[in-house]
Structures
1.
Amino acid sequence: MNAQPAGHPASELEAYWMPFTANRQFKGKPRMLARASGMYYETPEGRKILDGVAGLWCVNAGHGRREITEAVARQLETMDYAPPFQMGHPAAFELANALVRIAPAGLDHVFFTNSGSESVDTALKIALAFHRTKGDAARTRLLGRERGYHGVGFGGISVGGMVANRKVWPAAMIPGVDHLSHTHDIRRNAFSRGLPAHGAELAEDLERLVALHDASTIAAVIVEPIAGSTGVVLPPQGYLKRLRSLCDKYGLLLIFDEVITGFGRTGAPFAAQEFDVMPDIMTCAKGLTNGAIPMGAVLVSKKVYEAFMQGPPGAIELFHGYTYSAHPTACAAGLASLEIYRREQLLTRAKQMAPAFEQAVHSLRGLPHVIDVRNYGLVAGIELDPVAGSPGARAFGVYLECFERGLLIRTTGDIIALSPALIIEPKHIDELIGVLSQALQQG
Ligand SMILES: Cc1ncc(COP(=O)(O)O)c(C=O)c1O
C-alpha cells in the first residue's frame, strides 16, 4: 500500500532533513499540513486538523491573520532589508517601544534576535558581559536547571537540562555551568490544578550551588517560569519568588526564558507579571510575531542596559548582533501581532478561558495510563505511564492517533503538552478533549 499523500513520492521527501523529527518514520508515513486558518490546519487532501498547540507555542492569535500578512507585504514593498549595525529603521524602534509597554515594569530595553535559541545565547552573553562592565569579571558561571530547555545553541544546551543534549555533545558544553534541581514531583503534586502546592523549598538548591562555587564566581541563573519543552513543569507556589530573593542576596542576575510563556500563555502578557517576579533579563520569541516571521528579543532592566553605556560614546557597547536583528519584515509582523493582541485583549484571555480548559483537561484523569494532569492558563501537561523499555512510545502513539482523528498535539517523552491559540472557544476545547480522550482510550 502506498502511504504517501498525493504529490509526495518518497524520493521527493528525502532531501529535507527534518528538525527534531523521526525522519524515517515520518517519510514512511508523512503528515503534511498545507493550509491554516483560525484554530485549524488543513492537510493537502483537505482534512481539517484542530491545532491544539498554536503551531509550536507561537501562533497565539490563531492562524492566517490578514493584518500580519498585509503589514509584512507593505514592509517588503517599502523597504525589504536594512542593516542593523550602525543604522536604524523606524519599525525597529516602534516595536521596541511597543514591547516595553507590555513588558514587566522595569524591563525597558530590547535587543532583537531571530529565534528563542538566539535570544537565550544573547541573554547569557549579556549577563557575562554585564558583570565584566562592573569590574566583576570573575562572575563567569551560569546556572540553569535540570529539565530546562533553552533552545539549541551551545549556550542554551549547556544551561539546559536535557539529557539527550548532554549525552550527544558532552564536550561541547560551555564550561562553568551548573544546574539547580528540577521541580517536577508527581509523587507530591499529581493532578494539581494551577501551581503545585509542594516544592518551593527546591529554590534553596541555589544555596547549595553558591556554597559549592561561591557567589563571586556566578553570573546568572536562567529558568523558564513554566518549562514547556521538557513536558510542562510548573513552578511550585512561592518557588520563583524565593529564587528571586536568593539571586538578590548573592548579586546574581535572574534570567527568565519566556519563549513559550510570553505573549499571553499564562493569562498575563508575560509569566513574570502573572507570578509577580521581576527578572533582570527576559527572553522571548515565538508569539512575538504570532509565528509568522522568525524573530526573538531579549529585554533587560535599566540597571543592565546602563552598565554598558559607560564607555566612550563612540565605542560599540555590546559586541553582538545578527544580520537579521530587527529585520524590517519581522518588525512589521511584530507590530501587527501586538496590535491584534491589544485590540482583541488576547494577552489576558487565557485567564478567562483557564477555568473551562482546566475542567476539560482534568476530565482525562482516570483514562488508561494517565498518571498526571497539570495546567496553568492555556497550557496543560498530561503525563502517561511509559511502556516498559520504550520511553516515549506511548505518548507518540497517542500523537499519531490524534493526528488521524484530526487533532495536533505535542509530545515530549511520555508527556502530552497542550498550548492552544489564545482565541480558543469552548467548542474547540470540547473538540480537543473529545478527540484526545478517544485517542487515549485507544492506547
Ligand atoms: C523556553 C524555550 N527557550 C528557547 C527555545 C528555543 O526557541 P527556538 O526554537 O525559536 O530557537 C524554546 C523553544 O521551544 C523554548 O521553549
Note: The chain has 17 helices and 15 strands.
2.
Amino acid sequence: MKTEFSLEQLADPDIAEADKILRACVHCGFCTATCPTYVLLGDELDSPRGRIYLIKEMLEKDRPPTPEVVKHIDRCLSCLACMTTCPSGVNYMHLVDQARVRIEKEFRRPLIDRMLRAVLGRVLPDPKLFRASVWLARLGRPLAALLPEPKTPSATPSLVRRIKAMLALAPGKLPAPGPAGGSVFPAVGEQRGRVALLQGCAQQVLAPRINQAAINVLTRHGIEVVLVKDEQCCGALTHHLGDDRDALARARANIAVWRAEAERGGLDAILVTTSGCGTVIKDYGYLLREDPDFAGAAAQISTLAKDISEYLEGIELRSSTLQKGGQDGSFVVAYHAACSLQHGQKITQAPKELLSKSGFVVKDVPESHLCCGSAGTYNILQPDIATRLRDRKLANIATVKPDMIAAGNIGCMMQIAGGTSVPVVHTIELLDWATGGPRPGSN
Ligand code: SF4
Ligand code: SF4
C-alpha cells in the first residue's frame, strides 16, 4: 500500500512503524474471510482491510479520530486472526494498538462511555476491587432481569445492554483467594528448574484453581515455582482500552520485580496461564523499545515469558494416571484455541499434544480460528456481537460431543461457560489430573 507521510511525520517512531506496516499491506483482502466481525456484519469497514484504510487516513492526514473510525475500531476484537491469514506479514496488532491509543487521547467519548471504560480499567486489574465488584454485581443481578431487553441485537449497544452483560458475566460465588505474592513452592524431589508464575488479576479472583494446578504439575516435575511479590496486572486490560500510560507503567513495574527475582534466585522462565496476558508480556520488548531505561530489560523479560503449555512441551510429563470416564473408556476434550494463543503467540499444537499424550481424546472445534467473543472487555463493551460469536462457538463445540471443554485463557473459559452446561476447564487442570492431581471440579 502506498503511503504519503511527510518526513516530519516519519520522525515520530510510532508513525515510522505504522508506515512500515501499511506498506506491507497489498490489499488482497484474504484477511476478510477469517475476520469474525466481517463474517458476522459483512461490512468492509468491519474487516481488517477496511480498518487498515481507516487508520491510514487518520494517521496520514493527522486527523482527529471521527465517530465512524472509533465505531469500527471499537468493534475489532484484537483477535489477530487476520495476522494468521495475511500472506504479507502485516502486523495489524501494532497498527490497531496505535489507533486505540490515538482514539483514547484525541476522541471525546460520551460521558457514560468514558465512565464505563474508566471503571473497567480501574477495577479489573485490581484483584481487591474486582472481588468487591463481583459481590456488588451479585447483589445487582436480580435488577438485571428488570432492565429492558434490546428488541434486536445491536453492533452499537446501549449502556443498559452493557450493564446487563456485565451483571450476567459475574459469577454466582467466588472461591477463596489463592496463595499470596511472595510464596515459594519447592520442587518435589530433585530440582530441575525454577520459574515465576504470573498471578494474573481477574483470574486469581475467579479461578485460583488454575494456577494451583500449574503449581501442582510444575513442582511434581521438579520445578520450583515462585509467585513474585509486588507483581501486578500485566497491563493487557488497559492496553486494549488504549490507555498506554497505565499499561506501560504496569509493564515497567513488573519488569523491575521480575528482574530483581531473577537476580536473587534465578528464573528459567516467567510462566503464564492466561494467554491474553502472555501475548502482551511477550510484546513488552516492542512496547518499551523507545524507553532508554527499560528497552533492554523489557526485551529480556519478553524472551523469558512462556505460556504454560509451551514450557511443559520441553518436559517429559509423568505417565498418565487418568481413570477415564466416557462410556467406552475414552474422555473427549474439545480444545478451544484461544485467539491470543493461536494467533497472538502462534501456539497451536503444544496444548493438544500434551493433552493427547496424557490420555485424552482431543477434538478440534470446527471454525476454530473464529473468536469466542470474550476478547478482554469486549463481551461487556460489545455484548451483542460477543454473544453471537459465543453462540456460534458453542454450536461448533457441540458437534464434537465433548465430556469437557479445555482452553488456555480465563476470558474464553468464562465466555464459553456462560452458554453451556459442559464443564469448561483450563488445559493445565487436565494435565494436573492426568499426572496425579484431582479431577477438575472435584475439589
Ligand atoms: S491479508 Fe494482509 S495484505 Fe491482504 S489486505 Fe489483509 S492485511 Fe492487507
Ligand atoms: S483483529 Fe480480529 S476482529 Fe480485528 S480486524 Fe483482525 S480479524 Fe478482524
Note: The pocket of iron/sulfur cluster (ligand 2) is lined by residues 35-37, 48, 51, 76-82, 92 (CB under 6 Å).
